[in-house]
Design goal:
Layout (H helix, E strand, L loop, with lengths): L1 E7 L4 E7 L4 E9 L6 E7 L5 E5 L4 H12 L15 E6 L10 E2 L2 H9 L8 H14 L5 E5 L9 H4 L6 H6 L8 H15 L7 E7 L3 E7 L2 E5 L22 H9 L3 H10 L2 H6 L5 H9 L3 H24 L5 E5 H6 L1 H8 L11 H5 L6 E2 L8 E4 L4 H16 L2
Parallel strand pairs: 1-6, 6-8, 9-12, 12-14
Antiparallel strand pairs: 1-2, 2-3, 3-4, 4-5, 7-8, 9-10, 10-11, 13-14
């Protein structure tokens, strides 16, 4: 079965085409600047030369058509016909409480995704544009949707409710949802497979740390707590997001600086985090370079980032009454040996001991960076959300056929 995985943004459309007989990637690419002047389509067929095309692409349906044209192109294509595509899997950020797992797309499912626009105004509307564009171009194949929030629907009430009037939850569904669930699910499962241990017997803390970042406590194979909340703003310090802060700061700053709600929301999401502390960059590579050079602002940013990350690991070890495995993944987690070492050298109370030489090794495969004496396995597991979406799509399509 060949499955096309789509991840649509407001002005972009990412795609990967999988052959699920061996889970190989046949092609992948990205359409950027949709609706702007000079849209860019970058197409990377496996085993062939990458191609870039600049043209005017005004909306997602045209972008999808351009992608399909590249997939069947005589020179750069990997298919003889689009009829070889058996299913399409879509990523949607917010599934609310309605979706505890991935789903086959129906009219009812689309209506529910639209109903959730208020909870994810920056993410769900572009996802719906991607779904509509793909259905218009591929109307005769099943389409599925995989939600970033679904993995966290196993959290108990004590973890997902906020200590505010419960009427706000009942009327408006104000609660912790968590995000990056597709990644947390993939790396926790992959970690258990790597260790050749049943995931049901493990207490795992997965650290998805990139420009956006979250931790999840995975106990017995399910999410029992996660650091992001009703929105992706809560939790860790991130590239441009503040993470946790006293909620009273919001009205205080609005009053003192005469800011609107939109302005303070923009401040917390786009102008805070590492960018605000360092005053120079939201990129951890720049922050670590500055830290190593002894620059005070970058040093403070690095120390605050590591401290918050380490606090959450300690909290989740307490929440699960122990931890067997700590997994680092995503851009920073997979690539920054400095961040991993800084965090782990302050977790010795848990029995964590990493091998500094193993920690420096770069690899695209899951690997252990802890010593044989470490009481906690510490792993680096490259995330693969697209493959997780393809696997879920395959399962759903097969189940729908009986």
């Amino acid at each position: 079965m060949k499955i096309l995985v789509i991840n649509a943004g407001s002005s972009s459309l990412k795609y990967q085409l999988y052959d699920m007989t061996d889970e190989s990637v046949l092609a992948k690419g990205l359409v950027e600047r949709i609706g702007m002047d000079s849209s860019i389509l970058t197409h990377k067929p496996t085993g062939k030369e990458e191609v870039t095309e600049v043209s005017d692409i005004l909306e997602h349906t045209t972008a999808m058509r351009k992608v399909l044209e590249k997939l069947v192109d005589k020179t750069h294509g990997v298919l003889n016909s689009i009829d070889e595509i058996d299913a399409v899997g879509h990523r949607v950020v917010h599934g609310g409480e309605a979706f505890k797992s991935s789903a086959l797309i129906t009219g009812e499912v689309k209506s529910e995704i639209r109903r959730l626009f208020d909870l994810a105004p920056l993410h769900n509307p572009p996802s719906m544009m991607g779904i509509s564009a793909a259905e218009a171009n591929l109307p005769n194949v099943p389409h599925t949707v995989v939600f970033d929030t679904a993995f966290h629907q196993t959290m108990p009430e004590k973890a997902y409710l906020y200590a505010i009037p419960k009427v706000l939850y009942k009327k408006h569904k104000v609660r912790r949802y968590g995000f990056h669930g597709t990644s947390h699910a993939y790396v926790s499962k992959t970690a258990a497979e790597f260790l050749q241990r049943p995931i049901e017997d493990l207490k795992i803390i997965t650290c998805h740390i990139g420009n956006g970042a979250s931790l999840t406590a995975v106990k017995d194979g399910i999410s029992v707590d996660t650091s992001m909340g009703m929105t992706p703003l809560e939790g860790l310090i991130m590239g441009t997001r503040s993470g946790d802060l006293d909620p009273a700061i919001v009205p205080y700053v609005m009053n003192k600086e005469e800011l609107t709600m939109n302005e303070v929301n923009s401040m917390l999401n786009k102008h805070s985090g590492l960018l605000a502390i360092s005053g120079s960059s939201s990129d951890m590579r720049d922050i670590t370079d500055g830290w190593e050079a002894g620059k005070p602002n970058e040093t403070l940013a690095f120390e605050m980032y590591e401290y918050r990350l380490r606090k959450y690991i300690g909290a989740y070890a307490a929440a699960m009454n122990g931890v067997d495995v700590i997994v680092f993944t995503a851009g920073v987690g997979e690539n920054s040996a400095i961040v991993r070492e800084a965090v782990c050298q302050n977790l010795t109370y848990l029995g964590v001991e990493i091998d500094k030489e193993l920690n420096k090794v770069r690899s695209g495969d899951p690997r252990r960076i802890s010593t044989p004496n470490s009481k906690v396995e510490v792993l680096v597991v490259p995330t693969n959300e697209e493959l997780m979406i393809a696997r879920d799509t395959l399962r759903i399509v097969q189940e729908s056929k009986g």
